Amino acid sequence: MAAVASPYLAAFAARFQLVLQYRAAALAGFATQCWWGAIKIMVLAAFFYGAARSQPMSLEHAITYTWLGQAFLIFLPWNADPDVAEMVRTGAVAYDRLRPVDTYGWWYARAVAWSAARVAPRAVLMFIVAAGLMPLFGLGAWSLKAPAGLEATVLFAVSMIGVALLSASIVLLINVVAVASMTDRGANLLIAPFSNLLSGGIVPLAFFPGWIRPGLRLQPFAGLFDTPFRIYFGELSGWAALGGVALQVGWTLALVLLGRWALGRTMRRLQVQGG
Amino acid sequence: MEALRLYGRYAAASVRGQMQYPASFLMISTAQLLATGIEFLGLWALFARFGQIEGWRFGEVCVFYGVVNLAFAFADSCARGFDIFGSEYVRTGAFDRLLLRPRTTAFQLLGHELRLSRLGRLIEAAVVFAIGAVLTHLAFTPAAVALLVWAMVGGMALFFGIMVISATLAFWTVESLEIVNVISYGGVEAAQYPLNIYAAWLRDFLIFVVPIGCVAYFPVVAALGHADPLGAPAWFMASSPAAGFLFLAVTLWVWGFGVRHYTSTGS
Amino acid sequence: MPQIVVSDLTKHYRIAERDAGAFGAIKGLFHRRMRTVEALDRVSFSLEAGELLGFIGPNGAGKSTTIKILSGILRPTSGEVVVEGLVPYEDRIRHVARIGVVFGQRTQLWWDLPVIEGFDLLAAIYRVDPARYRATRDELVALLKLERLLDQPVRQLSLGQRMRAEIAAALLHEPKILFLDEPTIGLDAPAKLAVREVVQRLNREKGVTVLLTTHDMHDIEALAERVIVIGHGRILADSPFEQLRAEGLAERRVYIEFAEDAPDLVLAGVEVRAREGRSLELAFDPAKTSAPALIAKIAAAHAVADIHVEQPAIEEVIARFYDRHGAGEA
User: What's the fold here for domain C48-246?
Assistant: First the structure.
């Protein structure tokens, strides 16, 4: 078992290390995100001001939701994996086939590493600033609140693993599109806005009109932000939370199967063309 | 003005080049249209739920959004030279080429490329503005039109200034810094909403430091004929877009230092 | 009143030094050791309008640095430069409008634009009167044989073609002064000849002042009346070309082909350099020994099949000169 898994673990570890070196860029990105978070929250607060008492989500939760979104922003699938994009550009995709490993699995392990390594420092920093520092400066009302108890914390952690896996499965689909279309441009451009909107990254899904909300909650992107964050502040608990996780897992499996099938077909086509 | 004619030539040459690959810029344009449109959906959803934001209605916010994004889209379409300044001009020493021509270097960078791909954002901004104009029954009196045009021109000057800042940094750091996006994209995001919803510190920043508020909020409030919750006098509201030009002048002055640094250390 | 005056021009570069490896990189964040490179050390010379000056020296001697300062794109550490009454790096825009600069292997034309469109754009940038532009452009196109290249994007041209277009581009605004930094580097023989011919015509017929830096001694031989030799940032010589050659290596070489095996010649003031089969290579100082007299003497005593007298190759002259002044590669 270990022998089978080790090339993938090695790929994971190598990538993780490389990413940890990009610290300066990460710091700049962090400042940008704090700014975005602050603006979103101020806008939300302004909307709530003078609004009707009962809303699908309280301002406090919406604020926590926003900060969590900034902390884990990197999990939103945005582009094809940069290495794959490079391969598509240089035409070296076929060489990946020369490795004695399953291409999908290889790429999947690297995608998870790529996002997880970049998220970890960002998330920690965001928690320190938004949850730790802000209350110290009297900004407690605008801060990232603690999770709603032990059960919520545990389920949240589980759900975040689900996010990492789900996100990677979507990134792999983008990779396949990039390889199939022989360009790294097209897929990149189209997926980002959908990712952002449907996950709740632009506006928490709770605020969308009632008639569309159930549909929104069921689509795959909801599992990236909406599900785990609602588990975090206890809106989804117990069986409902587990249901949310199950949905994440279900979508992940579906997209993995789809991805494997699509990648296989694309690679076979490439081999025929001499790609 | 003769400089404008020269810019026209730069632009024409650039457009001709891009027209050779229409698929590329059309695709990017469409994607941009989609991306900005989808983000706008988020804004609409919030209004659908809450109805108003501190006294401002959806239509009015659409006008703010439209004016800011139009100015940004125009400026952004000329920004490519500044975006890649570090890697394509400083690192390679190609900046020498610009220094050898009898024109100001910042102006030559403006002429580097006119990005047709920004059309997507431009169209989306125009559509949102139109929606806002209709919803607010915006009266297109000469005064209102003048104010809006003045606001947009001031906005373009301000965004040009931000572009100049990002390129100036490249003289020292070679790679452009992501941090500048905080004031360009971040500023646009903030200015889409009326300033009075923000905390005092942010309001002051957006009026006195990076005066996006002056090129969007005040003139639009005046054009809408709305009472200003911030209580600015009428003369200020009408003349505030000048702050965009002031900002640009300051950034160009700092740019001069960057050029001096480059010519002292060589390429 | 000279057109170009350079006095005590000095340029120091400060380069950050860093220890190798990861530890060095970290140290480098806190304390940077700076090393000073003296690119130019009190260089002084002046040029009258219409002169053609060759600037030679080994790599790293300071030739390009001098041209950059004269064009106004580099500031000196100290010293003075005045070109047509302007200080280049202080009055950049006005100065640059009057000069043409060609950097070998680098092009100022737009990579993706056809050559003619690049020319048109330059004419607009330099504010050239349209009628004069058309006349100048047509003349240069004819001179540099660019007719067939005009519609091609610059990226599709060969190096030789690009340099010819480059020179035309630098002259579209009829500058009074032309700076050429290694213009023939990498060019094949016909291209080099074309470039030399253009430069010569411009200088002789239009009175354009030319300052040319090059490694190719044949460029100098063909063009320059006056030569400045620069080494390690200092001027080593500033004199007419023939004087440099004479002082550098006062030597003539005679290659003699005999009708029989080469004899063992011993003559006063004559050095036998090489001897192989029927050929002999001799060297002598033309000031002390007369070439005709020497040849007559040899021919009288031996059966000579062929004779050929030569000055040493200019490269050799210059190389010896560098050596003598300790000017070798920086």
Answer: Rossmann fold (3.40.50)
